[in-house]
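Exercise: predict the structure of this protein bound to LLP.
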Amino acid sequence: MCDGAGLAELAEEHGTPLYVYSAEQIVYRYGLFEAATWNSMGERRHTVCYSVKANSSLAILKLLGDRGAGFDIVSGGELARVRKVCKPALKRVVFSGVGKQAWEIDAALKAGILIFNVESEAELALLGERAAKLGAKARFALRVNPDVFAETHPYISTGMSEHKFGIEIGLARAIYRRAAKNKSLNAAGVSVHIGSQIRSVEPFRAAMERVTGLIAELRGDGHRIRYVDAGGGLGIDYSDAAFDPAAEVARYAAAIGPVLGDTGLHLLLEPGRFIVAQAGGLLTRVLYVKKNGAKTFVVTDAGMNDLIRPSLYQGHHEILPVTLRSGAETTVDVVGPVCESADFFARDRVMGAVKPGELVIVLDAGAYGMSMSSNYNSRTRPAEVLVKGKKARVVRRRETVKELMGMESV
Ligand code: LLP
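Solution:
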């Protein structure tokens, strides 16, 4: 089941592969960040800016935007999504990313977003130019690189000097000083994001300490810094052990809240994965079970183009047969139909026996699943359904092969 909806019925009605999301779980996870105590000393203003890249489904954005969420975006495309579903949320948008283009900056300025997280001095210059042209004053935060090590997969670690992200923290003060001369720029904050799927809260605390240190200096220099953006990155447990999301958010808040002390800073948060990952699964049907040498392969109708995390990051996802049957567990590789040896969801996984025609669900696939999917091998991407109680609604229908070719000419 996904909440009140039966997975077998969903597969029957909508076909597979199918992304299935629980609206209740998404709202619950968002609420944990919203309601957490970010300051042991009392009320602190904070805005939860859901990171759109984790899952940019319009229906999910609407669900969150209508409840007061802000959004962390990285492109003009993501901005357009927010605008489409929740105009009032535009003023709660933070714009991150190392490669912002003039048209994207213009669109965000016109939309009146909250703040630009600027990743280089050249980008800051461009932001100043575009704001001047539009007669606007752009609120910005430098995204600083705190040189903090966060234990996670190297592809999703971002907070060290060897990474392309942010501005070396030691250089920030001089850049703020130079920016103060530009009437089209308003130094409103400082931001940081050290990586993703981080389970220990210590690196978050360390990064926040460096950032608040910088903010004290900046305020001393006369800049009116009001916002501190802690980024996203809080991890989940993909191995399905007992996981208490409420306790995790409380632990995270207890690590960074006290560092902010009585600074009066408005805290911005950019969680993505934590809100949606465990709210979604990828439902797929077994096509074949085949043996090659000593190995048994379960071939599903979903592939790496639908969910690339196992192939790209050795990401672990639990996989369960939808109908539990008695019988011996077997060790199998769960693989897709794509012509790549990297097309697997699990290797040497011990799981309940499955037969061709049966359904399995790849768990914790709500984040960076559909949003990273592709049409590789000319495969149409999965449909998506959003479950509310017993009701399931198709929030993205399946693509057709004809549509895939529709943009081409010969
Ligand atoms: N803020 C910034 C500036 C980011 O770069 C990211 C993620 C987030 C917030 C949200 O991070 P989260 O709370 O979701 O960890 N595709 C990878 C993850 C890439 C994360 C990219 N940046 C994966 O599937 O594990």
